[in-house]
Amino acid sequence: MFAQFVESNTSDIRSLRMEVNDVWDAPAVIMLGSDDVVTFSFDEMSHTYSRYTYRIVHCNFDWSQSELLPIDYLSGFNDLAIENVRYSENTIQSYTNYSFSIPNEEQELKVSGNYKVEVYDDESDDETPVAIFGFLVVEHKVRLGVEVSGDTDIDYNRMHQQLDIIVDYSGYNVSSPGSDLKVSVSQNHRRDNAVVCAAPTYITADRIEYVHHKPLIFNAGNEYRRFEITDPYSPGMGVDNVLFTGDNYDVYLYTDSPLKSYSNVRDENGRFYINTNEGLGSEIEADYAFVHFTFDAPYRSGGSYYLLGDFWGNNFFDSNKMVYDYEDGVYRCVQLMKFGVYNYNYVWLPDNKTVAVTEFSEGDFYNTSNEYLVKVYHREFGARYDKLVGALVVK
User: Fold this and answer.
1) Are the CB atoms for 134 and 142 separated by under 8 Å?
2) Residue 376 to residue 390: CA distance in whole angstroms
3) 296-331 pLDDT per residue, tens
4) Is beta strand 107-109 parallel, antiparallel or unpaired with respect to 52-59?
5) FRET pair for 219, CA 20 to 30 Å: which of 29, 155, 241, 309?
6) Contact call for residues 370 and 162 (beta carbons, < 8 A)
7) Where are the alpha helices (DSSP H) in 66-168?
8) CA distance to 44, 93, 225, 339, 369, per residue, from 281 (Å)
9) How high is the pLDDT of residue 278?
10) How far apart are CA 69 and CA 58, in angstroms?
C-alpha cells in the first residue's frame, strides 16, 4: 500500500527523517545486497540522554507483520542501542539528535520487502515504540513501465491523473501472475489514498497490464505550498514575521487561502529539509520555532482540515489538525518545527472517512507534478512473506 513513512508517538520526539545514501530527497528504498544505506534520525526535545534501542520488523505488503522470524530476515542482532548521540549547540531550544544506519557492521538484511524500524525508550516500562520508520528493500526481478496522464476515464485534462502500468516478468518465474503479484501505488508518500490494484486488465505469458483501471485514478491536487526558516533575523519564503520572546522563536507565515488555479511553482512533493544559516552542522545547530499557520477559509462542518506533508508523516493527528477561530473567521494551527525548508498543504478529511481531499483547499489540476511510487510484490506458493520484486518512482 503506502510507501515510506515516519510516525512519532510522543511530542518529545520530533523531526523524524530517513535518508538513502545521504541524498535528502531520495525515496526510502534500497536494493537488497547492495551498498545502499538508510540513515534514520530524530530529535528528543531535551539535553537529557535517553537510552533508545531499535528493532527491525519485516512486514507484508500491507505493513502487517510477516510470519518471518528475525533470523529469517536479519543477519546479526536485533534490539540494538542507538549510539550516535549529539546535543544541540548554540540553540534556544535544547534537543538531542539520535541517528543510526541500516545495514551496518552488525546488521544485514537478508530478504526484500517492507521493513519497520521501531524505536523504544529502554528506560521506560511502556512497550509502545516512541517512533516508527517504514522503508523498503527491493530486489529487481521485474521491469516496470508506467505512464501518468491527465486523460482519464473520469475527465480529460481537468482534475485527475490516471496511471497505466505494465509489469514485465519475462525471465522471472511467476506461476500465477494474476494472483501471485500485487501492485500498489502511492502518491507523494501519502498513506491515506494509496491503492492496491485489483485483477489486471490483461495477462500474457510475460506481462500483466493495468489499463483503464479505475483504482489508479488519483485526484491531481496542486503543487505543495512552501516556506523557509533558515535565519531568525531575516524572514524567508512564505514567512511574514519572526518574533523572539526570550524563550523561543515564533514564526508567522503569510495567511493562506484556498487556491482556485494551478500554482505552477517548484516543490519537493511534500518533503522537508533541515537547514540553517547560523551554523555549519544543521542537524545540531538548527534551532526550533513555533510556526503559526493560518488558513483563511469558510467554516465547514462534517470534517476537519489538516496540515499534510512528510514532516507530519502524512498522518491525521490532533496535533496537525486546523482549529477554527470563530472570532477571526480563520483556521489556525501552531507547530514546533526545526529550521529548514518545508513543503505542506491543506487537506479536508470528512468525518468517518480515511481518505482526504484537496478540492476545498488546494484544488485539483491535471498538470500537477505529483510523484508516484509503484511497487510490485510477489508471494510465492507456500511462502511466508511478500517479496518486493520491483519499484519505480515516476514524476
Assistant:
1) no
2) 5
3) 999 999 999 999 999 999 999 999 999 999 999 999
4) unpaired
5) 29
6) no
7) 70-73
8) 17, 16, 26, 12, 32
9) 72
10) 8
Q: Which residues of 29-56 are buried (b: 16+ CB within 10 A; e: fewer)?
A: bbebeeebebbbbbbbbeeeebebebeb
- Residue-wise pLDDT for 149-188, tens only, equals 999 999 999 999 999 999 999 999 999 999 999 999 999 9
Instruction: Give the helix, strand, coil percentages of the chain, each rounded to 5.
Output: 5, 45, 50
Give the DSSP H/E element, type plus range, for residue 282: helix 282-285
CATH number of 5-138: 2.60.40
Grid cell of 338 as nine digits: 526545526
The residues spanned by each domain of the chain are: 5-138, 143-220+370-394, 225-350
Residue ranges in the chain whose pLDDT is less than 50: none
Residue type, 123: E
Asked if 130 and 52 count as a contact pair (C-beta separation under 8 A), the reply is yes
Q: How far is CA 29 from CA 18, 59, 174, 290, 375, in A?
A: 10, 14, 23, 32, 10
Q: How far apart are the first and last CA of the chain?
A: 18
Q: Determine the Cα–Cα distance for residues 157 and 321; give it in Å rounded to an integer.
A: 31
Q: Please return the burial class of 247, using the count of CB atoms within 10 Å of its CB with bins 0-12, 13-18 and 19+.
A: exposed
Bond from prior residue into 27 cis (ω within 30 degrees of 0): no
- Same fold: 5-138 with 143-220+370-394: yes
Amino acid at 388: L
Full strand arrangement of the beta sheet holding 195-196: 195-196, 181-187, 372-378, 387-394
CA dihedral 233, 238, 241, 246 (to 10 degrees): -60
Considering the segment(s) 143-220+370-394 as one domain, its CATH architecture is Sandwich (2.60)
In single-letter form, the type of residue at position 279 comes to G
- What pTM was computed for the model? 0.95
Q: How far apart are CA 256 and CA 234, in angstroms?
A: 20
The size of the chain, in residues, is: 395
Task: Take residue 225 and report the three cell numbers written for it.
Answer: 505550498
Q: How far apart are CA 324 and CA 84, in angstroms?
A: 41
Q: Is residue 178 classed as helix, strand or coil in its secondary structure?
A: helix
Beta strands 207-210 and 202-203, pairing class:
antiparallel
